[in-house]
């Protein structure tokens, strides 16, 4: 596609700028979701057009660029130009995120990409529109500011995925709100493509909204969060849906796509649709600490910080999700789930905060985690002890795992997939009268492929109180 000349684009803008002051970099405000998806007007009932993808799934309007040009042409100092850019970035975030796009009715579909700060220097944008060229579309610095920008014409022939290219590496645009997995399994934390026209995604499937660097108050760190809204969410009835929080939010989307499994299940049973919130980790290095809890602590292992992690989910993330999306509130419509250690911390959350989470899903959960800090002792597994001895809480459970073909004897045997401790956990729950949906997949391994295959069973159990509805 034709790249518009940066010289022509900024000629009139720069002609009105005077002064030789050097750039004063001001860190842009953090990304936040500043408005909920629309759909309900008080005392007026649902407004079908207000929650459709065409209304809420788009980038910021390119008219904001003209506003910036006018403000910059009137600025007479570096400080004034910086303030104009601050306002521009805030407006972009408030009105759909980057990139900026022309109205669908415009004759020429202009798209503006930008980066703020030193990260923009020697940066390019690559996507389907330029055959993913790492050098065809550079971002150009706007005079003495810290804004780098490129404007191109891109037809509305589909969602049009793209990435930044920096030092030869393809990276995500942190200012983009709408994303999709790039379909490259890196056998670790994966990556996403940002979308130019997210409203052009397949309307029969769900979509992902990215929140980058969501701050955790108590932990003092930040992580990415990806909110999956099923196809029904964008339907004419503007539904308010239950919500399920999922641990290992990046890997569960990019190792074996949980989105694909959810799309297939919700296409078959749209009445079970739910919003899925995939909560990533700041890095894999903190996984053991943030997914475990005291007093279970072996010598040389990190101090458990599961309580602080759950404080983030409960106090930082849940209010943000409830403000930004049409989700039901209350424990009966809120669940938490995870695989392996993610399953362990999810079960712990259910026992600790039953007033927040009325459903817990665990896939091959680390149920052998001890209750007294001594690992590899036959002393009772923490969650088994808790299920059997503490007062019953109003929580429904879904538990799945694999087992050897010959039958489960011990967690550590080949192909056991922690089956022994999971079976003990299920037995303890049922002995106390809990509602439990249980899946034991013979020859099922401790791997994302197996968890994805069993995910529809968990999604069904989340929405249906009778496990028999789900064939369990």
From TrEMBL:
A Pfam cross-reference name: Esterase
Domain of life: Bacteria
GO molecular-function terms, A-Z: hydrolase activity
Keywords: Hydrolase
Keyword flag Hydrolase: yes
Bilayer-crossing regions: none
Signal peptide: none
SUPFAM superfamilies named among the record's database cross-references: alpha/beta-Hydrolases (SSF53474), E set domains (SSF81296)
Family matches, as InterPro entries: AB_hydrolase_fold, Esterase-like, Ig-like_fold, Ig_E-set, Mycobacterial_A85_antigen
Protein name from the UniProt record: Hydrolase
Organism name: Myxococcus stipitatus (strain DSM 14675 / JCM 12634 / Mx s8)
């Amino acid at each position: 596609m034709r790249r518009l000349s940066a010289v022509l684009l900024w000629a009139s803008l720069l002609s009105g700028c005077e002064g030789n002051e050097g750039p004063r970099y001001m860190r842009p405000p953090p990304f936040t979701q500043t408005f909920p998806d629309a759909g309900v007007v008080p005392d007026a009932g649902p407004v079908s057009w207000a929650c459709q993808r065409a209304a809420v799934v788009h980038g910021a309007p390119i008219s904001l660029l003209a506003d910036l040009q006018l403000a910059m042409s009137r600025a007479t100092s570096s400080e004034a130009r910086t303030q104009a850019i601050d306002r521009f970035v805030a407006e972009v975030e408030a009105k759909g995120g980057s990139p900026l796009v022309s109205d669908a009715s415009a004759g020429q579909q202009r798209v503006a990409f930008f980066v703020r700060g030193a990260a923009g220097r020697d940066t390019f944008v690559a996507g389907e529109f330029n055959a993913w060229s790492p050098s065809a579309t550079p971002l150009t610095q706007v005079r003495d500011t810290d804004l780098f920008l490129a404007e191109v014409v891109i037809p509305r022939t589909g969602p049009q995925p793209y990435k930044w290219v920096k030092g030869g590496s393809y990276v995500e645009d942190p200012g983009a709100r709408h994303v999709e997995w790039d379909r490259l399994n890196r056998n670790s934390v994966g990556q996403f493509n940002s979308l130019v026209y997210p409203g052009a995604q397949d309307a029969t499937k769900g979509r992902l909204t990215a929140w980058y660097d969501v701050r955790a108050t108590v932990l003092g760190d930040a992580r990415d969060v990806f909110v999956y809204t099923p196809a029904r969410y964008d339907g004419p009835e503007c539904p308010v849906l239950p919500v399920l929080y999922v641990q290992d939010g990046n890997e569960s989307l990019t190792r074996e796509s949980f989105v694909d499994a959810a799309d297939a299940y919700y296409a078959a049973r749209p009445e079970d649709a739910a919003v899925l919130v995939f909560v990533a980790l700041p890095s894999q290095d903190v996984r053991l600490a943030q997914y475990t809890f005291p007093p279970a602590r072996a010598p040389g292992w990190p101090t458990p910080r599961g309580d602080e992690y759950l404080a983030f989910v409960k106090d930082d993330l849940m209010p943000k999700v409830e403000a930004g999306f049409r989700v039901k509130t209350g424990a009966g419509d809120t669940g938490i789930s995870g695989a392996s250690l993610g399953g362990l911390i999810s079960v712990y959350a259910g026992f600790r905060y039953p007033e927040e989470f009325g459903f817990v899903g665990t896939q091959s959960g680390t149920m052998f985690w001890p209750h007294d800090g001594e690992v590899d002792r036959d002393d009772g597994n923490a969650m088994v002890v808790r299920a059997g001895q503490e007062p019953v809480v109003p929580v429904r459970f879904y538990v799945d795992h694999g087992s050897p073909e010959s039958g489960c004897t011990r967690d550590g045997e080949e192909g056991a997939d922690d089956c022994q401790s999971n079976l003990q956990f299920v037995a303890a729950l049922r002995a106390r009268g809990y509602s439990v949906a249980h899946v034991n997949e013979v020859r099922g391994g401790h791997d994302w492929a197996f968890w994805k295959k069993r995910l529809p069973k968990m999604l069904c159990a989340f929405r249906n109180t009778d496990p028999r509805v789900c064939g369990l």
